Amino acid sequence: MTTTWEQDLAEFLSELSATQDDLLALLQKKRECLLRADVAGMTALQPQEESLVARLETCHARRQQLLERAGADGAPSKNLRAAAKSLVKSGKRDTQHALDAAASRAKILQHHSLTNWVVTQRSLLHLAQMLEIIATGGRAQPTYGNGIAPSGGCLVDQAA
């Protein structure tokens, strides 16, 4: 028979899985908007992002509560994986599988977030270069001096 802690852990992992899946879908939509430069589409995603942030904050708080309850029940409370090792055999395998799946999805989410960050950074770099071209009229400005290179040697032919 499972304890309420074990049931709560299973419910938490189910909610975390659903939240991660929704976040992955959102990151994919966001990347598509970034690639199309769809500002209206990005703006339309904001309420969904805010909802996911709230869900992730709830998951984080629930995780902390579960660790505290595990510690109170005598289970290890360092992390959920350590706490899950103390489960009875019947629920242990399913819980370990759910924890592995959540960790795998977290890595995928990190990868997608990094991809979106790279796309955004490259877009910003491109825009900065376009602004520089507009500001300078397309002419490259000399880095040093007035743009006229001396015709003689600096040490020997330098004018006084």
Describe it for me?
This protein is 75% helix and 0% strand. By secondary structure, it is mainly α. The chain has one domain. The mean pLDDT is 83.
Main features:
0% strand; 75% helix; 160 residues; 4 helices; single chain
Any chance you could write out the topology, listing elements then pairs?
Elements: H1 4-36, H2 39-72, H3 80-84, H4 89-136
The end-to-end span amounts to 97 Å
Q: What percent of the residues sit in helical stretches (DSSP H or I)?
A: over 70%
Structural class: mainly alpha
Q: Describe the biggest sheet?
A: none
The poorly predicted ranges are none
How many domains? The number is: 1
Report the C-alpha radius of gyration, rounded: 28 Å
Gross geometry = elongated
Q: Helix tally?
A: 4
Instruction: Please provide the count of β strands.
Output: 0
Mean pLDDT: 83
The proportion of strand residues reads: under 5%
* Order of secondary-structure elements: HHHH
Structure in a nutshell:
This protein is mostly helical and 160 residues long. Helices cover 75% and strands 0% of the residues. It has one domain (4-136).
